[in-house]
Amino acid sequence: MRKKKHDSNSLNGQLIRRPIQRWFPLFILPTFVCFCIGFVWPFLQGIYLSFCNFNTPRDAKWVGLANYVKVFEDPSFRHAFWNTAAFALVSIILINLLAFMIAYGLTQKMRGSNLFRTIFFMPNLIGGVVLGYIWSMIFDGILKQYNTYLTANATYGFWGLVILVAWQQIGYMMIIYIAGLQAVSEDMLEAARIDGANGFQTLTRVIIPNVMPSITICTFLTLTNSFKMFDQNLALTGGLPQVIQGDTKVNLSELLALNIYSTYNINKNWHGVAQAKAVIFFILVAVLALTQQALTRRKEVQQ
To answer: What are the residues facing 61 on neighbouring strands?
Structure first.
């Protein structure tokens, strides 16, 4: 009787899947076409244009690797790269550490934890440009007491951007960490207490290893967000202050995304160079993100 019931369920499953397998290309086709039009074709065209001089895509003239040579000779690009690398490193550590600490505190059965979660998450709902202008007024108001202002010093701009981004993103990462902490088995925590583990040992040897999937996600998001940072950088400092190196103007608080934007808009003869910078930027972010994913997921497998 059980065998007949199993056969009947299997047959019903096959009957349901068969029309889905037959017609799924028809349903997926509109989405696939939109993806090709909105992403694949512009992406491929962008790679081609990085080897050309152009004002518009229609008047593009092939110049080979000349644009890429100019990219690596450009001191503003080199400065923006190292500035972005330092910003990403500081942001990853600061945001993830504070987000995990807050999430850990809010999962300790405290009163009003849901209210605090909402409050900490709210800055993530504000747009980057708005945040940039708000925080620029706050910083300038503080620095005015010392007869200076935010864009007078590259150090002020760097740490101002770090504070802004941390304030915006900590609440979002906190939610992910809370989900990971709530998934830790109570049986494992109870077993650790029975074995005599103190709070620090429980945190480092039981909780953190089991929260590694959340750490992987949050590290990936903070890494990619730090390298893609544009609107906050534009609104907060606009890349200022500025110095002259040779024949090139270098914006000292400029990150990579803003540097690409500035290259494209300031000099019409450098549109191809800006496109080459964008291609290098994509490769850089992709390599770093995939490397980080591989390293942190290896930790997950070991647990």
So the answer is: 53
Name the nearest CA neighbour of 181 among 192, 191, 173: 173
Q: What is the CA radius of gyration of the chain?
A: 25
Could you report the per-residue pLDDT of 192-221, keeping only the tens digit for each?
Answer: 888 888 888 998 889 999 999 999 999 999
Q: Return d(Cα 172, Cα 179) in angstroms, integer.
A: 11
Distances (CA, A) of 297 to 68, 101, 111, 301: 34, 22, 35, 6
> Do the beta carbons of residue 174 and residue 99 sit within 8 Å?
yes
Instruction: Write down the pLDDT at residue 3.
Output: 47
Dihedral of CA atoms 229, 232, 234, 240 in degrees, nearest 10, equals -100
Distance (Å) of CA 268 to CA 42, 64, 240, 263 = 20, 18, 21, 9
pLDDT in tens, 138-184: 999 999 999 999 999 999 999 999 999 999 999 999 999 999 999 99
Query: What stretches in the chain show pLDDT beneath 70?
Result: 1-16, 19-20, 300-303
Q: Name the token pair of 38.
A: 């909105």
Query: Do residues 278 and 68 touch, judged by C-beta distance below 8 A?
Result: no
pLDDT of residue 121: 93
State residue 12's pLDDT score. Answer: 54
What type of residue is 68? Y
